[in-house]
Design goal:
2 domains, Cytochrome Bc1 Complex, Chain D, domain 2, disordered N terminus, Methylamine Dehydrogenase, Chain H, four-stranded antiparallel sheet
């Protein structure tokens, strides 16, 4: 499936919905496959099928940095204890990032197939990865030294450290849940009734596994089953546990998001999503706010206890930069771009350069913004024709080496509406 076809227009249409919490963080050009939250709750990190990761400010609800390195979908992201970030993807690579730097500090390689899950150890010294090469990887953040754990016979889909870091839990398509001792020894293997897609470990050691049959299963720290909760009729694809271990959020391929009281073993809320797959979910440190990542490339915010979408207090207090262009088709197409770009140089800097005075400007020539080296060598002057070509071919083809998320606009009419709008909005004319 070509997830990137016409995604700019699709994302714009979703983001334009006036429903609260629709279009909270819109900047990816494809489904949001992974979300992580910083320890202070001020930042989020997302990974997407569009091959990019984006670091977001949850205070300003804007993109702080676009991380472009992976050559395929970014399936897993985490914040490290020292404030750095890690991303892993379908290209089987792990990248370690420092905020503000254009390239990774380190790159770990060793898996032979997509990495789909990534976690950091409680002491912050190691990463663990689950891969479709049927293995689990354990990586030292100090020097990149790796250990390969073999035993699964099919794709490994999820991995989680125990609360104290003494063991590592993995789950896979082979219906196995494996508990690996980190010191040495043979893993405990539990065979469950369904292929397994996700796993989490609670602060008290309880293991929570999400299955292809839509059920959440609970196990003790040594693998004894203690109960289950049907969370939906379609496979569970992502799990999140609140910091205090009280709530579980489980997302389904059919668009369901169930919030479960872990102790009561009951569903307390089912979020009113729009039916498309919800690929990722994460709790904020307040233990009650959820972020979900959708197939439309949008990250939404919810109250986990009430199931209500949370609107943007920032946007309520500030004017919508596109309000003067209500009803303008070009502004509707552009709405998916406002997470990364401003129309005026007076607005606060976002992840991408401002578009103020765009037409007539040579690519990668705006003072004060750090562009990819590849762009500085290109001989492109921005004009309606070159902007239209950018979104006809896609940034990766027209401007290879860009950090811009991949997105294309298939409709000639929509490209014309966008370029006409930019001509008015970035030159001060309305």
């Amino acid at each position: 499936m070509n997830w990137l076809s016409n995604v700019c227009v699709v994302a714009a249409l979703w983001a334009f919905d006036a429903t609260p919490a629709q279009g909270q963080l819109a900047g990816h050009g494809g489904p949001v496959r992974a979300i992580a939250i910083s320890r202070d709750g001020n930042s989020a990190l997302s990974g997407s099928f569009d091959t990019s990761a984006i670091r977001w400010s949850l205070k300003t609800e804007s993109a702080e940095q676009v991380l472009r390195f992976h050559s395929d979908a970014v399936n897993a992201v985490v914040f490290l204890r020292d404030g750095r970030m890690a991303t892993a993807g379908a290209d089987a690579r792990i990248a370690i990032w420092t905020f503000g730097r254009e390239q990774p500090d380190q790159v770990f390689e060793g898996h032979q197939a997509p990495i789909v899950s990534l976690v950091v150890s409680p002491d912050g010294t190691r990463l663990a990865t689950a891969s479709w090469d049927h293995t689990v990887g354990v990586w030292s953040l100090a020097d990149g030294a790796s250990q390969v754990l073999k035993g699964h016979t099919q794709n490994v889909n999820g991995v989680a450290f125990s609360a104290g870091g003494q063991s590592l839990v993995s789950v896979g398509y082979d219906c196995e849940l494996r508990i690996w001792p980190m010191a040495a020894g043979t893993p405990d293997v539990v065979l469950l009734p369904s292929p397994l897609n996700a796993v989490a470990v609670a602060p008290d050691g309880e293991i929570i596994a999400g299955g292809g049959d839509g059920k959440i299963r609970f196990l003790t720290s040594n693998g004894n089953e203690t109960g289950e909760v049907p969370a939906g009729s379609t496979p569970i694809v992502a799990l999140a546990l609140s910091t205090d271990g009280t709530l579980i959020a489980a997302t389904g391929i059919g668009g369901t998001v169930s919030v479960i009281d872990r102790k009561a073993r009951s569903i307390v809320q089912a979020l009113a999503t729009q039916g498309a797959p919800v690929w990722s979910v994460a709790f904020l440190p307040d233990n009650s706010t959820l972020l979900t990542g959708g197939a439309d490339g949008v990250i939404r915010r919810w109250n986990a206890w009430t199931g209500d979408p949370i609107g943007s207090s920032l946007r309520a207090a500030q004017s919508d930069p596109l309000a003067p262009y209500a009803g303008d088709r070009g502004a509707l197409v552009f709405r998916a771009c406002v997470a990364c770009h401003t129309l005026s140089a007076e607005e606060p800097q976002r992840a991408g350069p401002t578009l103020d005075g765009l037409y007539g400007r040579r690519i990668a020539s705006l003072p004060g913004y750090r562009f990819s080296d590849a762009l500085t060598k290109m001989d492109i002057v921005w004009a309606p024709e070159t902007v239209a070509r950018l979104f006809e071919l896609g940034p990766n083809t027209y401007t290879p080496g860009t950090k811009m998320p991949e997105q294309r606009i298939g409709s000639v009419e929509d490209r014309k509406a966008l370029t006409d709008f930019l001509g008015r909005a970035t030159s001060g004319r309305r």
